[in-house]
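FAQ: What does the model actually see?

It sees only this:
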Amino acid sequence: MPAKKKGKGGKKKGGKKKPKLTKAERAQLKLDKACALITEQQDVYQNFLDRMERWMFAHKLKARELYLRFDKNGDGVLSYNEFKAGMLDLEAPCNATELEVLARRLDKDKNGTIDYREFSKGLHFASSESEDTEEAPMLITRDSLCRSGCKLGHWRDHVERHPRYVRVHLRSMTFDHLKSYPGHFNRVVLSHSSIHSLCCMIKEELALSTTTLLIYHDKTKDALALDPSRTLEDYGIKGRTRDDPEEVTMFYNYTTEFHDCSLLSADYYFIK
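And it is asked to produce this:
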């Protein structure tokens, strides 16, 4: 019996062919792969998120005004294309693929729209990933804040429902060039901690009695001291989970109240 003839390409007759992708589907597939190249590289992705977190906080007011012009029906949401057009108008420091990654990150319910009113809350709070790993409410009591003998008056325990953590690397501005200087240390604190509380932490760590201790974001010549009454969140440091706290470096400087004693006015005896 003669063998059955095969169709073109050696395939049997009736074999199913893969459906041909449309131009739009091919473009979407290409975009998905490009986004995956960024999100699957943990270091690259985290650096991108940190960079955009800082930029978004610095431009949140300008961005809100711009997005109001795109939001025709006033419902507070934008399509991906409208959001990306707004970011381009703001000259955001990212390319087309990164804009798509950013849009997907901000799309909390994955429905193709972005609530631009949540823009200022940052990337660490704008994704469903952070909600899934949200920690239990934290009870802040007087006992947890005070040492024995504390005279703190009327107090009601405060519940922090969304605790966020920051690892603050505190470094002496004067001796920043020294690696082994004992005045360099780090602590994990809550994101709503005040600058004043950091000053108290430094004084306790170094057993200082000075009243003129200042904290700075950087050690440049024109750096301004941070306001003790403000919090880390006020300066754009939102924090992350307890297991993955946001890393921040700050610098401190102080003067002593002793002027006639060279030993008490110097820090060189700390150097190893």
